[in-house]
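Async update (no meeting this week)

Hi team, since we skipped the sync, here's where things stand on the single-chain job. The sequence we agreed to prioritize is pasted below, unchanged from the tracker. I ran it this morning and attached the output directly underneath so nobody has to dig for it. Comments welcome in thread, and please keep replies under the output.
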Amino acid sequence: MIFSLKNKKIKVIATFTILAIMLTACSKKVVEPVEPISGTEFLMGTVCTIKIYDKSSTKVLDKAFKRIGEVENTMSINKEKSEVIDINNAAGEKPIKISDGTMEVLKEGLKFAALTDGKMDITVGPLVKLWGIGTDAARVPSKEEIQVKKALIGYKNLILDEKNKTAFLKNKGMIIDLGAIAKGYTADEVSQVLKENDVEHAIINLGGNVFAMGKNVTGTPWKIGIQDPFTQRGDIIGMIEVENKSIVTSGIYERYFEKDGKKYHHILSTSTGYPCDNSIAGVSIVSTKSIDGDALSTSVFSLGLEDGMKFINTMPGVEAIFITKDKQVYITPGLKNNFKITDAAFTLKN
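Output:
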């Protein structure tokens, strides 16, 4: 069953407060409750929520959501028109002029495609469209259909001309899909908008792509829950403490459909043409830039536990939490004294 929300703004002042007790050497100081300014919109195919914990106004939220809309209108392939749609429509024919933002995201996409030997490939669009996972048209394609679409995938056939600001897909039928990277870029852009408007403390949540700005208003790190990949969004298996960090999670819980008792999730393997089938149920990436976390969450999910762990350990300043299908949890060394299991059904293995 597929649920959808209308693209409607729901701006609200949050109904909850944060109350913290700060200990000093000789006394206790009570920090006044803080009511964040909060806004929620359905954009980029997901629920986007921004909570600002500084003295601010709803005009800042307007600017932040406007920026999300601008990115969606430029990079989506699910709207009537965008720069990426124009590139796809001109595949095999001609280069298309693009904005600086689209150029940046495409360059990052090609970088991570090269680093993962095509495991994360932004030209995966033909397969994404074929499977239709997350839409009413979701189905299991034939092996023949999959082979035809696989032949169209190849990041090396996306040609970027930075001097003339153009992008060109060499072969007709190729399709760019930025679903594995655009939300990360957008979270970074929203963070920049908030900084430019003197916001220091905020939580940006773009459908599970979380960016924690600054520290909590109490002066302590933000506590962020790690998604349980076996339930709907919102349930957690553990907690980490972060400041000025992005936490991006990819997992089998996000978009999927079932056919003949088998579940098909949305993270597709560019080598097999089918949803990735390994021991991983979910992976969370902790990074400074959300665009990195977004690309890496898909990349290491595709690589699997062992190769994914090795890959993350080569990335400076990046950490990861892997959850396997048998509810074992593996973390990278930088999270050793940070991550805490909160659900007894899961076991920390390293």
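Quick observations from my side:
The chain has two domains: 10-57+198-348, 78-169.
The domain at 10-57+198-348 is CATH 3.10.520.10 (T-fold).
Reply here if anything looks off.
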